[in-house]
Amino acid sequence: MPRRPGLSVRLRLTLSYAGFLAVAAALLLAVVWGFLLRYVPDNTQGLLGISPNRYLLVRTFGPAAAVAMAFLLVFGLVGGWFLAGRMLAPLTRITAAARTAGNGSLSHRIRLDGRRDEFRELADAFDSMLERLESHVAEQQRFAANASHELRTPLAVSQTLLDVARKDPTRDREELLARLKTVNTRAIDLTEALLLLSRSDRGTFRRESVDLSLVAEEAAETLLPLAEQRGITLDVTGEAARTSGSSELLLRMVTNLVQNAVVHNLPAGGTATVHTGTRGGTSLVRVENTGRPVPPELVPTLTEPFQRGTERARTEEHAGVGLGLALVHSIVRAHDGTLDLVPRPDGGLRVTVRLPHTDM
């Protein structure tokens, strides 16, 4: 928005300092003038012709007072300009950093030295904002690059299959259609996951009362055939746990957790349990599974988009798109909750979601 030019803050502070100094000096001189001349005789001869009278004091005191006032005014302007520059120096650095950030450089930091005051608190807050903004932008850039790569893969495979079919008309048509359907389904799943992740990040959803125990039962019922196919025992326990949020997103959250617990499990004879309940004003969902030991250094990367946890047991038909726990993390964050991932001592993972508890 264009603005009309005006006086700088430094100049206004200088004029304020000089003005206050001049007013204080004028008041002081007025008080001295009043009390000094109040008891001095007002005649041409003075007291016995020896003591100075009011006329002489005015003639001698007036010019000196005028010189003092002029000196104080100049001193106030010069000193005020210097002091204002010293006081506003941190603000100049903050402004320069803001302009640098506005030009796209988010790595610059102010890092003001000295004891804490208003300017240093502002500079520290600005540095923290730049740090979070830089991290967010870097995360979004990584996400965009990974998403582009993941979307490019099924499209490239589809193009290759079509080229092969065009060059070899004798190739089995049913096999080609089946492979194209598989690749197309993967691309659709990835696109829907990306849209859902974007929606949960923005928090644009209607909130309603949701019972997490019913959501867990629905997710387990949906994935029960997969668990039976892989020889995994799937159990749901606990009690009602209500929270406020999107039933669709919360169902997707629990479904992803249960699917991960089933897929990343032992080859056969494993277990996956889902427990719901309330504790200390929070509603929780805890999903545990057996499986291979999970290295502790791998845990922080599991919620990153397109990180599939290559150290964990998985099969190619259920490899997913690497957005399962990333979606869970995003949904939990959008519902003002917390997500904890802890490796189990005997293998597998324990995932606990805590959301704000609400009554019916």
Task: Walk me through the topology.
Elements: H1 9-38, H2 54-102, H3 118-167, H4 173-202, E1 208-211, H5 212-229, E2 233-238, E3 242-245, H6 247-263, E4 271-279, E5 282-289, H7 324-334, E6 338-343, E7 349-356
Parallel strand pairs: 2-4
Antiparallel strand pairs: 1-3, 4-5, 5-7, 6-7
Strand count: 7
The biggest beta sheet reads: 5 strands, mixed
Question: What Rg, in angstroms, do the CA atoms define?
Answer: 38 Å
Give me the secondary-structure category: alpha+beta
Morphology: elongated
How much strand? 5-15%
- From the N-terminal CA to the C-terminal CA, the straight-line distance is 48 Å
Helix fraction bin:
55-70%
**What would the average pLDDT be, to the nearest integer?**
81
- Give the helices and strands as they follow along the chain: HHHHEHEEHEEHEE
What is the assembly state of the chains in this entry? single chain
Count of helical segments?
7
Q: Order of strands side by side in the largest beta sheet?
A: 2-4-5-7-6
* Unreliable stretches: 310-319
